[in-house]
Design goal:
251 residues, eight-stranded mixed sheet, 9 helices
Length: 251
């Protein structure tokens, strides 16, 4: 399953939008804004843009008039984005330079880890010569407080699950470097605590389920582990850091 097929619900995007906004690198956004200061009217193509959360965060941080084009396969999400942005139903794994004609900037978030190496190569090729801000790529590091012995095993199984079908998963940032793109990388971790209880519960359930799908031998221990962790989250006694990286590519 590649980025062309991964289902995302509007509810999940709404739940994660505040955590995403807090995690993104302000430093890279400011650097991009300085780079684009003299560009005039900006045409920004947002790949896998869903309901438009990226534009809501980034647009105030960029200079001048802007026209956003949100690409996604999911018509439900595009209907939400259409309130504020132009939308195009697109398979972002097959974009060409013609699809991005006239663009000043390309953005994406939580996308690179859902691509295969070939899909990443095609995407970077289509974006050659354009600045890119690629945020919230997972890097395979997760920490929970308080820690438990099973954390590391579930984390390793989850990372292997993300690599299924040749997807880059937590290897995506290294793959961008390996393809010769010059990038500036900054951390953009989710820091979840009692103020993010709903998101933490949703994330935790998916994290454990994916790990068990990858390593079925985990299932017996994981059920009690999940219930324990969910009780801690509900009581405000659990903190989770999910590490991501933001990448800025400047021609």
């Amino acid at each position: 399953m590649s980025a062309a097929a991964v289902p995302v619900t509007p509810e999940w995007l709404d739940l994660r939008e505040p955590a995403d906004a807090a995690a993104r690198s302000d430093e890279l956004a400011e650097r991009l804004g300085r780079y684009l200061r003299a560009a005039g009217h900006l045409v920004i193509h947002d790949l896998g843009g869903g309901s438009g959360a990226r534009g809501r965060w980034l647009a105030p941080r960029l200079p001048g008039p802007q026209h956003w084009v949100v690409h996604d396969r999911d018509e439900r999400l595009l209907e939400l984005a259409a309130v504020s942005f132009e939308t195009r139903r697109s398979d972002i794994t097959r974009l060409t330079r013609d699809d991005l004609a006239g663009a000043s900037l390309v953005t994406a978030a939580a996308l690179l880890d859902l691509l295969t190496r070939d899909e990443l190569h095609r995407m970077l090729g289509a974006c050659t010569g354009l600045p890119m801000l690629l945020t919230l790529t997972v890097v395979g590091r997760i920490s929970l407080t308080p820690a438990e012995p099973l954390d590391a095993r579930i984390g390793a199984a989850f990372n292997d699950h993300q690599r299924r079908g040749g997807l880059l998963g937590p290897d995506a940032v290294a793959a961008v470097d390996a393809m010769g793109a010059e990038v500036i990388v900054r951390p953009s971790p989710w820091r979840l605590d009692a103020g993010h209880a709903d998101l933490m519960v949703e994330w935790l359930g998916g994290w454990v389920a994916a790990a068990c799908e990858q390593e079925p031998a985990l299932t017996a221990q994981a059920a009690a582990y999940r219930d324990r962790r969910l009780a801690q989250a509900a009581a405000g006694q659990l903190a989770v850091t999910v590490d991501h990286a933001d990448l800025l590519v400047l021609p």
